[in-house]
Every structure is written in C-alpha cells, then in structure tokens.
Specification:
single chain; mainly beta; seven-stranded mixed beta sheet; six-stranded mixed beta sheet; 100 strands
Length: about 1450
C-alpha cells in the first residue's frame, strides 16, 4: 500500500504564493529548453549539369528546432529547389534538380532555430559540364529497376557503380536517405562482394511502408552521381474467407463420439469457431486461426453444429448435422403371395418408424445342408425370387438394413415350388443286347429306330413304369438301332437324350455313353465315357482329327474309362469318335464330339517391326501380328519395350496392356535426339511370346536444352574482344550443333543501348559431332574503345537456337596505336636488319615498340622491347635455310597496338650438324635395322631432303652407302656374325653435312639355337611370363637377353622362365629370344597392349635373333580394389570383403580370389602383375595331400581362396569351404593380408602352337587383419615331422657348404673349370696371386655397378682377350665415342677393400708418384733390409722393378 502522507505547513500570504509560483515556472522553463545541435550536417558535393544534388541536415533540441535553407543569405525558392521534411521532424533534405552550371554553384546554409537559440552550417555545391568531368568521376553501371514484391517477401534493389577512387554507394527513398540502422536488421546494404552485389539494398519481410521511389547515389572525392529512380511496389493480398474443408454430416451410434473438422482460408487468415444453435462452443480467447476441430463425446441425440469463419473482410458459416442412428427392427407380416415352378413372390411390412436403406432376403432349400442364400439391395416390400428348383421346399426370411447395419431377421415362412417338365435329358443312358432281338435299356421313355435320319415322332416309343430299366424285344437282328431317352412329369416331357446306337448282335459292345472331351494342356485333351453295361470289352478304338481336315488318326488302347490324347497343336479344334470292341466284334462309334486344346504362348514374335521418329520426344512403333500358325491362341495384348542407348535414363522400360487389335503405338516422353532400341512381344491369356529383334532409331532433333558452358570474355585490344566457350553437355544438345550465335550489346549505365548485334559462328560439318570438352572461339571486332559490352552465346541446331548463356560484361581498353611500317633485309651473316616508321594512326603518347619473332615451326616467340626513339633493330643468330615470322607493334598507355606481320626466309647451306641418336632396332643374319633423329634445328641449315647411311665391315676399309628420305633404314645383304661400323649423313639442297659418330652392329650368327620352345605361359595387363628350354649341352654362364619394343631384359643363363613386368595394358608386344645383344633398360608395360619379346644370350657385343613371340597384354577390366565390408565382422578367422565391379564380363571365364599374406618377400610386389601367377595357379591346383604336407611352408605365400564362375558383391575370406577345388582356409589373427581379384579371360583367336592364359587383376586391397581370438594356422602332429625334417636337413647342408667355401677361399684354390673358358683362363686362375686379377676372374658383381651406367657389363664378363683378337676388341670398345671403355671402367666394383699401409707411412709418402692417388700394398714391392737399413727406404712401385 502507498501510505497517505500529510504535510503540516503554516499558510502563506497570497503575494508570497504568487512569487513562489513565478519562480518555479522560470526554473522549470530553464531546465526544459536546450540549444539546437546538429545530428547530420550537409557535405560539399560536385554534381553534373542536368543532374541532382541533395543536402541533408538534421538537428535536435528542446523545443524541436526548425530547419531553414539559405543560398547567398536568402531563403531558397525555385521550382528546381525542393525541401523534403523528415517524418519525425528532425530535419529536412534540400534537393536541387536539374542542376545548372553557373546558377546553382554556391554555398548553401542550413539553420536550426528554436526558442533556446540558433545554429547553422553550410556546404558548397560545384556543378560541372559534361566536357569538364574528370577521369574517375563516378558512373552508375547498373541502376535499380522497377520491382514488385509481395508483402512479407524479400526485395533486392541492385546498384553497381564505378570510378576512381571507388565510390561509396548510398540510397534515397522518396528523396530522403534510407536509414539502415533503424530497421532492426530488416533493411541491409551490401558493403562487400563483386559487382553488382556490392552496394545492393536488400529489404527483408517487406511492408507496405517500404513502397516508394528509390535512388542509388555513388559518391567519391571526384563527385556525386545519381541513378535513375525506380519504384518499388509492395503488393498486399486481400482474400475474403472461404472454407477449404467445410464440416460434413456425421452419423453415430448412441453414446458415440465424433470429431468435426472445419478449415477456412483467406488473407488475412480468418478466425474459426464452433456454435451449437446459439451456444458458442469455442471460447473467444482460444479462437484459432484457419483450422478448428470440435470433439463431441457421448452423443445421445441428433443436433446441428455450425462452423463460423471471420476476418476483416467478412464472416461465413457452414452447418454439419450429427445424427444418432440405431439398428432397424425386423420386418413383419412376411407372406408368400405367388408361387411357380422356379419362383416365389414375397410381401412384408417395414416394421420401422424411420426409413431404412434397403431390405435383404435370405432363403434356402430345406433339403439342402448349405446355408442361406442372400438377395441384397431390395428397395420395396415386394420381391420375386427366381432360379429355384421345381417342386422343392424353401424357407424365406427378410431383414432391414440402414446406415448403422443389418437388423434382426423376420419370422421365416416356408413354401413349395410348383411342378415342371424335366429341363434336361436323362443322364448316363446305357443299353446292351440280351439276345439278337432283345435289348436292355436304362431310361424312362425310350424312342428307338433303325433309321436315325427319321424324325423323332416317327420313331417307335416304349414307356416304362417307375423302374429305370426296361427291355425292348422284337428287334431285327444284325442291324444298328438308334436310341433316345427322355424323362416326363405330369406337366410334360423333358428333352430327349443324345442318340445312342446299338448293334443287334449279341456280344458286341454298345456305344460308349457320356463321351466327353476336356482340354487339360495346350497339347493334351482328356477323353472320358461310361463303360457299357456288362459288355465284355477287349479294347477301345479311337478316331480323332483336326477340324476342317480329313486326316483321321486311329488309336487303340486297353479298356479304361478315360484316355489322354497327347501331342496336339495348341488352340486347335479337334473331333473325337470312340467305339468299344469285344471278341464278338466292334461296336458302334459315337457321334463326333469337339474339343479345343488350351491356348499357349506365341512361338514367334510380331513381324515387320518398324520405327518412325515423330518428334524429338516420341517414336511410332508399328508391327504385324505373329503368323497365325505361331500364335497358339488369341492375341490378347502387346507389350512394347524400349531402352535408350545413352543419356540420363538408360533403364529398360515397358508399355503393357496395348490392345490386341493395335498394330502401332506411340512412345512419348522420350529424351531428345537419343538413339533407342525397341522390342515388341505378343501375349495370349497364357503368357508372353518371344521378343522381336531389337530395332533402333533416333528421336528427332530439337533446339538445345542448355546454353553453352564456361563462357569467357577477354579484351584483345581497344576494338576487339575474344569470346571462348564450350558446347552444352552432350545430353542437353538435342541434336547436332550446327553453330553458335554470339550476341553482344553496348551498355550505358548498365542498360543496353541500341539493337543487339549477332555474330553467327557456323561450324563445319566435321565438327557437328565433336566432344563436349572442345573449346570454341570468336573474335568480335569493330568495337568502341573504353566501352562496356554485354556478351552471351547460344547454340543452335537445324530446329533453332537454344537458351542463352549467362551474360558476361566486359569493357574494352583505351584505343591503341595502329600498325607501324616495317622493312626487313637479311645478310649472309645469319642476321636480319629490321627498320620501321611510327604508325600513321597514332592514338595517345607513343611509349615504345615490341618486336616478336620466331621460326615458323616453333611455338614460342622471342620478344624484344624497344624504345620509342628506336627506328631499327638487328636480329642475330638466325638459322640458315629457315622461315621466320616477325611481328612489330607500337605501344601507348592503353596497351599494345596492332602488329605489322612479315615473313622472311634465310638462305640455305649444308648442314653443320650430324644426325644423332643413331641406334640399332632390329637384327637378322643378313640385315640391320637402324633409326636416328635429324640434326638439331639450329644445325640443319635448311630442309633435310635425304640421308646417306655409310657402313663397312670393321675388317675392311671399303665403305658402302644407302640413301633414304626417312629417319629409319634396314641395311640388307650383310654377312652373318659380322661387326659393321655405321654412320649417317644429312643432306640439304646445298649438300651434305658431317657424318655422325659411328656405331657398331653385329649381325646374327647362323649357329644352332641356344634355346628351344620359347613361348608365353601367362599374360596379364602389365606383365607376361615367358618360358623356354635350354639344351643339355648348353652350359654357358653368359646371361640371356629378351628383346621387346626396343627394350631388353637380361636373364641368367641357367634360368628357363622370366616374368616381364611394367608393360602397358591392352597393348601388342613381340618378344624375341637371342643369344647375343646389348643391354638396355626396360620401360613400364601397360595393360591391353601388344608387345614383341626377344631372348638373347649376351656373349658378344652384338646379338643374334633366335626366336620371337608376340602377345597382347590384357585389358584393364577391374579398376577398383576389394574393400573390407565391415570392421566389426573381422573375427573367427573370417573377413567379409566387398568385391569390385567388373567393367565387362564378356570375355571372362573364371574369377579367382587371391590372398597374399604380408611378408618381407611379398612386399616387393607393388601390384599383382609382378607375381608369378603360373606358379600360384599350379600350387593351388596341385594334389590336396601334397598341399596339406607343405601347408606350413606355404602359409606366408600367396594362395587362391576361391574359383568362381561369376563375381558376387561380397565374399567371406576364411570360411573353410571349397570353391571349385580351392580351399578357403581360415585367416590368422597375427597376420596382415592383402587380397585381389584375378579374372581369367577366355582363350580367343590364339594359334594352337601359342596357347597361353590371359589374366586381368584388380589392385591390391588395403591391408586387413582379423581381430584377436581368430583362428591360427594349425599343424597336425604327423605333419610336424614333414616340417621339421626338411628344415633341419636344409640347415645342415647350408652349414656344410659354408664351411667348404671358407676352406677353399682360405687356400685360394681356383674355381672349377668353366666349359666356356679357354686354357688361358685356367692358367691364370691357377697361377695368379694378384688380388685384382683374382677378383676380375672370380668375382661376380651382384648387380649394376654404377648409377650412371645402370646396365654396364659385370666383371665376370671380361675374360682375358687373345692377342689375335685384341685389335678387334679395342675397335669395339672405341665405338660410340668410347662408350664401352667407359662401361668397362664403371664395371670395376669399388666395394672391395685393399690395404695401403706401406704407402701411408710417413717415410714413404714423399716417394709416391702422385700425392692424390693411393698406392695399394699389392701394387708395390717391399725390399728386404740391406746392411741394416730399413726396408721402407727401398719402397718401389711394381712397374719400376724389372
């Protein structure tokens, strides 16, 4: 509570009170008033004549100050001057429009005045004419445009400006500045980003107050420019309320519940409430918008509920009726009013006060155990039920049905139907002869006659009593009688039975009765009949034939009651006739009966399938029905299948349910300009027939569906730009792109001016089907300098042009100079003098020249920048006999001008260089194949018109020559096993140049082959396994050599197989086996590539070709690697892996899953192609017992886990199952594994003598390992003996061999005699103690001896040279500029360490001949002491001692 406070003060005199009141007013007045202060002051501006200028002035104070504007001391007043007040009264804007150059240039003063004081401020306005606008003055490149936006949506007004310095962009609305800070973030201005984003104004959740006229102002220190104004309209939707989901009537059971839903829409959204009569069911404060659901429970009586929707634009209502329903009562007074033999008429009373929906009648035959039959939907209280059996008792009852359900039945009534003549003939009529003139017949009234063609009334009649059997006597023997039997009642006769024929001959069977046929299958019909009464039947005879033919087929079979006729045609009508035979004779055949076999599927496809392209998205398919003999039934429908061969959707689609009478169908919604293949098949009721052969056609062309891609524009010069682009994506081209339209327009303030210009770029016919990555280019010339252009490109087909690409905006540079005048004169000294004069069309200041020149064959120009005062330049070091192009351009501040282009040719001369890289690429016993490269470009001195190859036997001084225009030649007619010296010389029109350095080549020997059966064992995508056999008498230690594609690989002489790796996939290779040759490095082999291989034995410096094979490496079919399926499933010795997908399975016969345990030996294989797959396959396919014995030895070796016909998506490693003979053994938990998929290809088109297997392998998987606790490899106890025994034996043998070698090395015993070395070598081995000589003869260098010469011969390959061969040997070493001398030097292994203790002694160091060369102890003699002097004083080199 607020306390009441009472102040007790003495009363004051009246005068004192007035004085006090006056003083208080003065105090409060002085406290409330304040002097104005400026919030925003006007700023100096520089405008353009005819433009706009605005000065903003805002002030605060108490009371609120009044703003006035003054010009030169006078209040502004003019039609061009307008003062716009701020809505809050805080200030105003002085707007001047249009500006006048001299009249408006002044200082404008803003004055803020209130009762407390006055303040003022001023700003200067400068107005420039168009010709006075300085460089860098702001420009509006793209101004705001008219925009209409719906309230609540986002509106963006774009503004792009340029200038130097870059101008600041602000916005005005209705000539007042836009205050972004007071919009709570709803209005934003972008301050960063590229044009036109920077400076754009974005208004989110737009309101009606945002509507107005907007201007964009670009302001910098150079001046201010206004854009053209643009209106923003905010559209407000106003829609009266309406019901989108009105309430609906409901019916419920007593005590039930219901939900009444009502939904109303409008703008603004209406409120929705419920009312029951005058009672409001929805509280006003809880009234929802749009949707209201009323839940009504425990309903006991019917009522009306009203939904009311209201908004500012009106009120609407809708009513729903809720009705309480109950089951109807049973009808009363059910009476039978009329009866016939097959119908009963009933009448009844409703018995219900409320209307019912309908009545239901239930009835049943009293003699039947079945339930009631029902008649629903009876709308009246009288109804006739037909289809009853004559003379039968029935029970009837009626029940009423309403919306709730079915009520209880009425009391039943019973009645009997009336009599009727039989409606069907007697069944199972049979007859047999008791004697030659008496027959026994089963029936009621019997008609019989010997003349079947007579009318029934002329037949004799025989009535029976109640018995169904009767005898007819007095018949004529040995003739055939026809019988018919009928039943009758008091009302009348029934229809007669079918004719039954009987021979009046005792013992002959009667005609089979009830003979029926029924189709069971499309090729089988089942026949059934009744056996004749007590007739001794021995067999049946059947006749059947196809309707419309006379070709009857006779069949006999044992007496049975049915027979199946097989091998019939589908959907064919057949006739059947049956007779019984006894020992007394053949009975009468039945009348023919008909039956049609069941339908089958068509055995032939629709015929004459044709396609017609109607439009770019539709095809018409037409066909002819299958031949009648192949339909096997009535064609009920057709199915058309179609599939695109390329494009976005390559799935197969089917159109089903095409009418049987149709002979064509139109496929719609197809992809444009896409090739389709179409199949048609016919259907019977049984199923579809075969498909027709696929027919292909392409949909018609259409305009491109997408614009060209990657449009780029760059400035060439002041009047030209370069436009580049790429075609639309292939699936969007919709036809053959015949050309492009380059559309460009000049822009002013971001708005196009004038009509757009179109450049038509027509493609030649060979470019109509180019790749989508091809880049096109167009140069647009004749443009204006320093002008902005917009550029867009559209592709077109024969149907028209497609959509245009996004616009690119570019500004040309300033005008550049024209072409200078140039003159070139050449001299004999490989120089050219260039003289020129300045351009006649010189724009701007000349700052220099640029000279560019090159040989026509070259791509890169040599560039020289020259001064503006230069008028000549001398180019030196030009090549002789060459054509040059010179380009001279002038430069100004805007850039490089157009070039003056001129070509010159220097005089030819003889070449000053020789051909290089001369090498031997092929050998036979009588020919050598050579290749070389032309002299270097600078030394050709003209066009090389031919080459001369000079060659001679090294033992002869006579040269031979051959002439060719190519850089290759094969020299024929040479002597076998002979070394030739070869050189090459190049010629121009002026003569020949110098000879190249010589090389030596030795032709093949005619000696017998050193190896046989050279062939291919296995081929992979980057490797091949070669094998051969070596004769028993061939024991050379000289390595073999395999030659292929100008490469070579060395193989040790005792080997019989070699895996060549690093080949190229899917490439042809030829391999040759030779006994002699040079060594060279191998290159990486590629998949699916043909290679030729040769094998040589490197005994001499040149090789002899012996055997050759050719293969093609496997294609790279499996490009991805296996991947671990789930890390959580790597347990129990098992791993689940996802297998890669195979690109094509056409040529694949088997798939192998290969597991590689990671070990030191397997890490050397970078990919599966480096493995010996033949050994892998042989080890996997060996006997099971042998594999078990060595399982422990092979645990770290790769193995095949499975052999599969098809590759599944996933596979489990280590599941201990067998797959086509390969055991998938469990994995070890402490071992890492790699795995890959190996595809064995089918052997196609291989010569029978060159059979080999081809494989394509996937990459290795990542290393995988099962989790701990997994299965480890187990060895049974008996297998341990097989393990430990061989291991211990091998270790013992190794120890013995090492001991023997050490003992022999210690005694310096000579090596065993080599079968391929002469006695000279044995003598040296036996007597030499020189460690260098011992090392040269005995030490086998394990690998390349130098990184610079990776294939130099090893030391073992340099035996002593006989004196008679020394001259030839030295000539060979001198070949190729002493290359073999260098190789022999490099072959000296620096790894052997020798001692130099004596030469390192201080007393002997001065005696060394060279201070920087070490004197080894084995190359010096240590003299013994003489007269007590030290031996070191007599230290001498070996060669100084005689």
């Amino acid at each position: 509570m607020v306390p009441n406070i009472h102040l007790a003060v003495p009363p004051l005199p009246r005068g004192a009170m007035l004085l006090l009141l006056l003083l208080s007013c003065m105090v409060f007045s002085s406290l409330a008033d304040s002097v104005p202060s400026f919030i925003k002051t006007p700023e100096d501006q520089t405008g353009i004549s005819g433009g706009v200028a605005s000065f903003v002035c805002q002030a605060t104070g108490e009371p609120k100050p009044r703003i006035t504007w003054m010009k030169k001391g006078k209040k502004v007043s003019s039609q061009r001057f307008e003062v716009i007040e701020f809505d809050d009264g805080s200030g105003s804007v002085l707007r001047i429009q249009p500006l006048r150059t001299h009249r408006d240039e002044a200082i404008y003063e803003c004055t803020a005045t209130n009762s407390a004081g006055e303040i003022n401020t001023s700003a200067k306005l400068t107005v420039l004419e168009e010709n006075q606008i300085p460089h860098g003055f702001p420009t509006i490149n793209m101004g705001p445009q008219l925009k209409v936006v719906e309230r609540g949506r986002t509106a963006t007004l774009v503004c792009a400006a340029g200038g130097n310095p870059e101008p600041e962009i602000t916005w005005f609305k209705d000539m007042l500045p836009v205050d972004v800070s007071n919009s709570n973030g709803r209005i934003k201005q972008f301050r960063s980003g590229g044009t036109p984003v920077r400076g754009a104004l974005q208004i989110e959740n737009s309101e009606e107050s945002d509507q107005g006229k907007y201007e964009c102002i670009a302001m910098s220190s150079a001046g201010t420019r206004y854009s053209a104004p643009a209106n923003l309209y905010v559209r407000v939707r106003r829609v009266a309320p309406r019901f989108s989901i009105p309430p609906t009537n409901q019916e419920v059971m007593p005590g039930g519940s219901v939900n009444l839903t009502c939904v109303a829409v409008g703008s603004p959204m209406p409120y929705v409430k419920w009312m029951m009569g005058l009672v409001e069911m929805t509280k006003e404060e809880e009234m929802p918008m749009g949707r209201n659901v009323l839940e009504v429970n425990n309903i006991r009586e019917s009522a009306n509920y009203t939904c009311v929707a209201m908004s500012l634009l009106g009120m609407i209502e809708a009513t729903a009726q809720v009705t309480v329903k109950a089951l109807p009562k049973p009808p009363t007074s059910l009476t039978v009013t009329e009866t016939t033999a097959t119908s009963v008429t009933l009448t009844w009373d409703s018995g219900n006060p409320d209307p019912v929906s309908y009545y239901m009648i239930q009835y049943r035959a009293k003699a039947s155990d079945n339930g009631y039959q029902e008649v629903e939907g009876v709308a009246t209280t009288r109804y006739s039920i037909g289809g009853l059996s004559p003379y039968s008792e029935y029970e009837f009852r009626v029940m009423a049905v309403n919306n709730i359900g079915r009520g209880p039945p009425s009391d039943p009534v019973e009645t009997r139907t009336g009599e009727q003549a039989p409606s069907s003939p007697p069944l199972h009529v049979q007859a047999r002869m008791l004697s030659a003139s008496t027959m026994l017949v089963q029936g009621y009234r019997v008609y019989y006659s010997s003349d079947q063609t007579a009318p029934l009334s002329a037949w004799q009649k025989h009535n029976t009593d109640d018995s169904r059997l009767t005898t007819i006597s007095g018949l004529t023997p040995d003739i055939t009688y026809s019988l018919r039997v009928l039943g009758f009642t008091s009302v009348g006769d029934g229809p007669p039975s079918d004719v039954l024929q009987v021979k009046t001959q005792q013992g002959v069977p009667a005609q089979p009765s009830s003979f029926e046929a029924e189709a069971e299958l499309d090729t089988r019909i089942m026949l059934t009949w009744l056996w004749p009464v007590q007739d001794p039947i021995t067999m049946y005879e059947l006749q059947y034939w196809e309707a419309g033919t006379d070709n009857k087929i006779h069949v006999t079979f044992d007496p049975v009651g049915s027979h199946a006729v097989e091998g019939l045609k589908p959907d064919t009508l057949y006739l059947f006739s049956l007779a019984a035979r006894s020992e007394m004779g053949l009975g009468v055949y039945t009348q023919p009966i008909e039956a049609r076999t069941a339908q089958s599927t068509p055995s032939a496809p629709p015929q004459e399938v044709h396609l017609v392209s109607l439009t770019s998205t539709s095809l018409k398919v037409s066909w002819v029905a299958p031949p009648a003999a192949s339909r096997h039934g009535a064609i009920v429908r057709y199915t058309v299948s179609y599939q695109a061969l390329a494009g976005e959707d390559t799935e197969r689609h089917e159109v089903t349910g095409i009418h049987a009478d149709a002979t064509s169908y139109v496929l719609d919604g197809l992809e444009k300009w896409t090739e389709y293949q179409v199949w048609v098949r016919a259907h019977t009721d049984v199923g579809p027939g075969p498909e027709s052969a696929p027919v292909r056609i392409r949909t018609k062309e259409d305009v491109p569906g997408a614009p060209p891609r990657k449009l780029e524009v760059e400035v060439v010069n002041s009047t030209a730009i370069r436009v580049t682009w790429k075609p639309p994506l292939q699936m969007k081209q919709h036809g053959q792109i015949r050309g492009y339209q380059v559309i460009f327009s000049r822009l002013e303030n971001g708005v196009p001016r004038g009509q757009p210009n179109i450049m038509d770029v027509v493609l030649p016919e060979e470019q109509w089907n180019i790749e989508e990555s091809t880049e096109h280019e167009a140069i647009i010339g004749g443009l204006q300098s320093e002008t902005t252009y917009s550029v867009t490109v559209a592709a077109y087909t024969t149907k028209g042009d497609g959509p245009r690409s996004k616009v690119k905006v570019i500004t040309t540079t300033g005008a550049v100079p024209g072409k200078p005048t140039m003159m070139i004169s050449t001299t004999m000294g490989n120089t050219a003098l260039i003289q020129w004069q300045p351009p006649k069309e010189m724009v701007g200041e000349l700052i220099g020249y640029q000279l560019r020149y090159k040989r026509i064959e070259e791509e890169i120009y040599t560039t020289r920048d020259l001064k503006k005062t230069d008028d000549h330049y001398t180019v030196t070091n030009l090549h002789k006999g060459a054509s040059y192009v010179f380009r001279l351009s002038a430069l100004n501040p805007a850039g490089i001008g157009e070039a003056y282009v001129k070509e010159i040719s220097t005089p030819e001369d003889v070449p000053t260089g020789f051909p290089f890289n001369l090498q031997v690429t092929g050998l036979t016993t009588s020919s050598t194949q050579l290749t070389w490269e032309p002299p270097v470009l600078a030394e050709r001195n003209g066009k090389i018109i031919y080459y001369v190859v000079v060659y001679r036997d090294i033992n002869s001084q006579q040269n031979s020559t051959n002439r060719t225009v190519d850089t290759r030649m094969t020299i024929q007619g040479l002597k076998p096993d002979t070394t030739y010296d070869i050189r090459v010389q190049a010629f121009t029109n002026k003569g020949g140049g110098p000879l190249s350095p010589s090389i030596q080549s030795r032709t093949m020997s005619t000696s017998p082959a050193f190896a046989t059966s050279f062939g291919v064992k296995a081929v992979m995508k980057t490797s091949v396994l070669l094998t051969w056999e070596v004769p028993e008498n061939y024991k050379s230690q000289v390595p073999f050599k395999i030659l292929y594609n100008q490469q070579s690989v060395e193989v040790q002489g005792n080997l019989k197989r070699k895996l060549i790796t690093q080949l190229q996939p899917d490439t042809e290779y030829s391999f040759a086996l030779t006994s002699r040759g040079n060594s060279a490095g191998g290159t990486q082999l590629q998949p699916d590539t043909e290679y030729s291989f040769a094998l040589t034995s490197r005994g001499n410096s040149a090789g002899g070709l012996q055997q050759q094979v050719s293969i093609r490496t496997a294609p790279d079919l499996i490009k991805t690697k296996p991947v671990l399926y789930s890390q959580h499933q790597t347990s129990g010795g098992k791993l689940n892996i996802n297998l890669p997908k195979v690109q094509s399975t056409t040529h694949i016969r088997w798939y192998y899953i290969v597991v590689v345990p990671v070990s030191q030996s397997t890490r050397q294989w970078k990919n599966p192609d480096e493995m010996d797959l033949d050994e892998l396959l042989e080890s996997g396919e060996g006997p099971v017992l042998r594999r078990r014995r060595r399982r422990h030895l092979e645990f770290s070796k790769p193995y095949i886990a499975a052999k599969l016909e098809s590759l599944p998506a996933t596979f489990t490693l280590g599941d201990e199952k067998r797959y086509n003979g390969f055991y998938n053994k469990p994995l070890s938990g402490h071992q890492e594994y790699l795995c890959f998929v190996l595809a064995a290809l089918r052997e196609e088109e291989q010569d029978s003598s060159d059979k080999y297997r081809t494989f394509s392998a996937s990459p290795y998987s990542d290393p995988v390992q099962v989790m701990s606790g997994s299965v480890s490899p187990r060895l049974e106890q008996p297998e341990m003996l097989w393990v430990m025994g061989p291991v211990l034996a091998v270790l013992l043998i190794i120890v013995i061999v090492i001991a023997i070698l050490l003992f022999k090395r210690k005694r310096a015993s000579p090596l065993p005699k080599d079968d391929h070395s002469g006695g000279v070598k044995d003598s040296l081995l036996a007597n030499s103690s020189d460690p260098v000589e011992m090392r040269r003869l005995n030490y086998q260098t394990p690998g390349p001896s130098s990184h610079r010469c990776p294939n130099t011969p090893r030391m073992r390959e340099h035996p002593p040279i006989p004196v008679a061969d020394l001259a030839d040997h030295i000539e060979r070493l001198k070949a190729n500029d002493g290359l073999r001398f260098s190789q022999e030097y490099e072959s000296i292994d620096p790894g052997q360490q020798f001692t130099w203790e004596n030469s390192n002694m201080e007393v002997n160091k001065p005696k060394n001949r060279y201070a920087n060369v070490i004197a080894y102890d084995h190359s010096r003699v240590v003299l013994t002491s003489v007269d007590g002097k030290s031996s070191c004083n007599h230290f001498r080199p070996l060669k100084a001692v005689d």
